[in-house]
Amino acid sequence: MIKVEGLTKSFGRQKVLRELSLEVPTGSITVIIGRSGGGKSVFLKHLIGLLRPDAGRILVGGVEITGLRGRALDEIRRFYGVVFQGGALFDSLSCHENVAFPLREKLRTPPAEIAKRVEAALAQVGLEGMGAKFPAEISGGMRKRVAIARALVTEPQIVFFDEPTTGLDPVLVNTIHHLILDLHRRSRFTAVVVSHEIPEIFEIADTVAMLHEGRIVEVGPPAAIQASANPVVRRFIRGEPDPSEGH
Amino acid sequence: MPERPLSPALRPFDAVGGWTIAVVDSLGRFGTFFGEALGAVVTPPFKVRAFLDRINFIGYRSLLIILLTGAFTGMVLGLQIYLTLVRFGSEAFLGPAVALSLIRELGPVLAALMVTGRAGSALTAELGIMRITEQIDALTVMALNPMRYLVAPSILAGLVTFPLMTAIFDVVGIFGGYLVGVKLLGLSEGTYFGEMQTFVDLNDIMTGFWKSVSFGVIVTWVCTYKGFNVGHGAEGVARATTQAVVLCSVLILVWDYFMGSILQ
Question: Residue B143 phi/psi, 5° resolution?
Fold first, then answer.
């Protein structure tokens, strides 16, 4: 389980996270929704240890990671898989080499096994035979799928998805969502998905948490969130502008 | 509690204080970055493939520009020094004058400036793009140290390639001087090379060598640091690249003076 308690972060005078608290149950898909610029990606960067909070703590499997550095933090990261917003594939490596990279460098897997596992991972995301292509030679949707294959090839226990469908057409959004769901059913990893794909994301979520102005304002199963009486949640789900912002 | 506005009399002190803190902070980060890079250079596992790739990137791909600038620098030196020496009837010293200028001073400096322009800027841009497209973050969350994969190989390659590039620059430059002095202006071949052997000693060669080694570290350190700490978007990469080239060029010239003073 991931437990976040009172997470606070400011950049200069701008407070991005305000005593944010959340629990992510093991083996579930928890989706974090909220408006762009609301702190979702900043929150995710705290979970994966790329940012340090000003206050509060994050516990992963009972271990507090907020004070960890270097090798101690890397020990926790060994259980992680991360799918970045733009895929973050290494430009200079082919898709096959990208997926093989964590196996070769992180797990020191023997070359014969790497080849087998990479082909299986690419096949799992529907990209069999595409390994020789470079990231610049494939479409945005394919890049996201290669990124998912790279994140999952090490069989992580926790997978973080940072807006995995941003910039994709509705068909591809659906494809990626079902791919995440399908892979989750097979591997039962704990997933944290940051997204603002409403309502499509509700189809794959076990729990939805709404982040607004640096706080989690509502948490619950998708049906409960959709039926929420909270005006902030209702407006976001319906795509209505905040009246306080004006036009 | 809201902050009280500063009185106008104190504002200049506030600005100077803020600037000082920012400078000390960035110098500290610059130094820490080098310390971390050095740690990755001297501790295993060594990334041999990445190191060879950087040798190719910084050294081999800069070869053409080094050959070209080396040849013309030697030719210009040959012409100008000949025209000066001939006034004093001392044209026999053309060979050592060209060689000493190149080996002690112009070879290391110009080769470093050329490699900065060709490879240093590309190094910053490459790392900057990797930063803004989260490729460096991807390495970090894979529990792999980006310093080991991206910075240490570049610094090591700088240590190896800069002296080699300088040596090539010097040799080509000396032959450029020979072409002008001997083949065009009629100085005897024996005089050009014979006097060179008399006046150039190992100390001169080592001066050039140590300069080029230190320039290799400076250029790769500055360029990787700037790429690693790039701002946002394409504008951030462009700014970092410009800053890297300007800072490297200034540091090369400043450091050259200090090295020249120490290694007299």
Answer: 65, 30
